[in-house]
Structure formats: structure tokens, C-alpha cells
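**Reference record**
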Amino acid sequence: MRVVFAGTPEPAVPSLERLIESTRHDVIAVVTRPDAAAGRGRKIGRSPVGQLADANGIPVLTPQRPSEPEFLDALAALEPDVCPVVAYGALLPRPVLNVPRFGWINLHFSLLPAWRGAAPVQSAIAAGDDVTGASTFLLEEGMDTGPVLGVVTERIRPTDTAGDLLGRLAVSGAELLEATLDAIESGEASAVPQSTDGISRAAKVTVEDARIDWARPSAVVDRRIRSVTPAPGAWTTIGDVRLKLAPVHTSDEELAVGHVLVRKDGVFVGTADRAVLLGDVQPQGKKLMKALDWARGARLTDEAVAR
């Protein structure tokens, strides 16, 4: 089949790699978000998906908005059979959805209808889910509402960060996406409407959402930190210092909410039940370091409180 692939960030790369290597599908073009500033130097650069397409000599389309008439014309001229999409990052209007004869097939990193929206992996970890997965479905104008074509499941491990879990799902999801396109080509695909039960929403996680509320139980604090690692990154303030937090460990230590205890065996912060032991921390403008090294250098007192 003639394929136009749409995607932008690193988790979409395994899917594009797999389709490029496929002998049954021909990736004739890629759609990705426009070049943007990234990294500490804020240099303008191509998206990870765009870079892979360039390396393989595949034409790249980068519309500012998918609703642009020029993009619609360019896509129609390509005459794609199907358009798989993985984390593209923009809503597609009905005229664009109508172009490929088999539609747009979205790979979403949850077991739909659970965690519809922008941050399904982060939401599943934060909620304490034991199992999640990936779904392929026929894209509609609604938010992740289309009929499901295939699923793959994945256990959430006790120490998983969002980066860990998304990395595994990106690989297993790529295999699922290729299998779904194979089934569409052979006429064996079956689209099943999503259940009206078990619907949950996964809104985009903001920097403010990633600020840790120490008045929550230690298990909730642990999951929240892991759910926003590596991005946007959990954080708190101790005194007048803003700290980015790596994953923590629960402990049997009892401390008042937010109170900080520095001992030879580490730095503890009180929560609603048990204290947590901090892992690495990153003061604003500095490198990641062991929490104990930072605390000693900062000369924390018994009055220190995380907020």
C-alpha cells in the first residue's frame, strides 16, 4: 500500500522505521510538525520523525496547520492508500481525513477507551494502573473515539517512569501498527466500536501539574514523580531553591508533611503517611546530583520545608 506517515516525536520513530523496512508497504511521504527550537541551545531543528525521513530520502511535509489548503492539495496529489499516525501533534480536519481510501490509522498508547487524550502513559502511571497497552483505531474528528482495529497489552512495572513505559510501548506499538496495516491490505481488518464504559481522559501534563504535593500519600507522590519523568519533570521548592526531582523511594520514616530530614543515609521528605527518600535532584541552572550532596552543600537546617 502507498503510505503517508504522520508523526513527530521520538516515540513515533519505531513505527516509521518498521514501515520503511516493510516489504508490503511503501512510505511515499511523511507529515510532521514544523521545525522548532529544542534543547538547551534552543536551536531550530527537524523533528525526530522528520530526521528519519530525511535520512531515507522520503519527502517531508511540514504544514503549520493541517487545515491549510496547500497541505490538503499536496496530500491529495500523493494519492495515499492509508495514513498511519503516531503522536503527530495536531488535529486533522474532515477534508484531510477523507483523503486516503482506507483512512487514517492512529496508534494510541493506551487500551481505549481508557486514557483518551494527550498524556495516556503519564496518566496510567499516576493513577496506579497495573496494565496498559497500545491501540490502533480509525481516526475520527473526536478525541480518540474511533473504532479499534487492534490492541497490545503491557504491564506497568513498579519502578517505571513515563519514559521507560513509553519506550516499550513505542516498540510493541510499532509491531501492532504494521500488523494492522497488513490486515487492512488483506481485507481481514475488523473495526470494533469503543465501549461506552471505562472512558477516562488524559489531559496534557503542564509544568505546574508536575509540582509535587507533599500532602498526598507517599505512594501517590512516587507515582506522580515517575509519571512526569523525564518530561516535564517533577519539581518542588525547598527554601528559595527550585529542585527538579528524579524518582524517589518510599520509607518507614515518619515526618510532618513537607518537612525535610537530612541524615547520613539520605534526604527524606514527609508526605501524608510515610516519608520518601529523595534520589537525584537538580537545582535550577545546575547539573543533576545526589540529593545528599546537594543538601550538604546547601547547609539545610531542621526548619527546611519542601513546598
Summary: Residues 162-186 form the longest helix (25 residues). The mean pLDDT is 95. Helices lie at 13-21, 48-55, 69-78, 94-97, 120-127, 162-186, 218-227, 291-298. DSSP finds eight helices and 19 strands in the chain.
